[in-house]
Amino acid sequence: xxxxxxxxxxxxxxxxxxxxxxxxxxxxxxxxxxxxxxxxxxxxxxxxxxxxxxxxxxxxxxxxxxxxxxxxxxxxxxxxxxxxxxxxxxxxxxxxxxxxxxxxxxxxxxxxxxxxxxxxxxxxxxxxxxxxxxxxxxxxxxxxxxxxxxxxxxxxxxxxxxxxxxxxxxxxxxxxxxxxxxxxxxxxxxxxxxxxxxxxxxxxxxxxxxxxxxxxxxxxxxxxxxxxxxxxxxxxxxxxxxxxxxxxxxxxxxxxxxxxxxxxxxxxxxxxxxxxxxxxxxxxxxxxxxxxxxxxxxxxxxxxxxxxxxxxxxxxxxxxxxxxxxxxxxxxxxxxxxxxxxxxxxxxxxxxxxxxxxxxxxxxxxxxxxxxxxxxxxxxxxxxxxxxxxxxxxxxxxxxxxxxxxxxxxxxxxxxxxxxxxxxxxxxxxxxxxxxxxxxxxxxxxxxxxxxxxxxxxxxxxxxxxxxxxxxxxxxxxxxxxxxxxxxxxxxxxxxxxxxx
Length: 501
Known about the structure:
This protein is mostly helical and 501 residues long.
């Protein structure tokens, strides 16, 4: 391979990783530093990246649906592929159709219905698009439930794809009458449709409805919040139980949520929302739930990473923004417990930038002395929770979870990592990776600490093992062939088939 081809491969790999980092972290919402990542800046930055990658690397653009990108960007990719179907070959459209169907199957239903609304507003109404939408609607376990909970979305989708409801709808001919001719039928055979009808005048029917719909009827009937929560508890989802449990301090008792079954990052957000007194009083419960969620997220990787040292950012900037409150700190807290599960037993050491030793009581505070903490992490030190316990000979892996704004002193982290890699560890005995939960719209990427350190964006701690795997492509020691092979493997696992070359 000549020099120009090598350079082209390097540029292509960097472009792909740039887009993947943005698709993982950016949600179009304001970050902590408003001058760096306002909501409008993020939208403009994402618009450019989506268009650039779709036009120049369409295969990679579609394959990104099989990666751990966030729902906001997954929906944008689906919309972009459907909108530009004329730019793809027949084989590409078939491969994209499989990826779109697989991604829609794992997206939250509200997100899919909003996507279908965007498809309608964009005027995308070709045969393939209608087939994709019809197949997704047909796969819904209970379209009557969706018609009650997401009425506007179901109505828009049904109208756009010309979904024939009564009498051709089969098992649920009532859905069409419910959506397009409300009040036509005196009653419905489907229990939820009839409960919605009765809830307009019968308070007892409110508890039969999905929680988000029932809340509106409860307010209309003037029901007391505590009574309503008690009656609605059996129909709540896990996240609804968690949300109502967060309200108990203000509004009185509510249904208890099983914290052990909550997703790790969501659980970390819940823990950080609690006052310090509650965290301390419920230490055993909260720590046990976090470790259980971390072991579940680690899966088969548990205990396989050897000695792991982590530098975790709990500086003031980890407080996030008004739209993403405490999100960076929650990611760091979740990563702390996940890395503990991934490390060999007793071989994990977590260092917070504030110097705190109690992970459960962390809070956003102070500057970001990443350089000092990285120096501490690279030195042999105690493992486990006891400072006087056995000392390690240095980590096999160093994981840094931070927004990358090293400022105490500025630039020290990058210099430490550069010297370490070039002079003290040229053989790369210690694997170093930087995970950044904050998107930098001005740089079209997440902020990096040093050129020789692989950096990946992260939104949910549960994705950490996969992100560490993809971050190695940023080191420049692998080419596009290896990157495309990795994407093909992810696509094959995601859809059950390989992506066409």
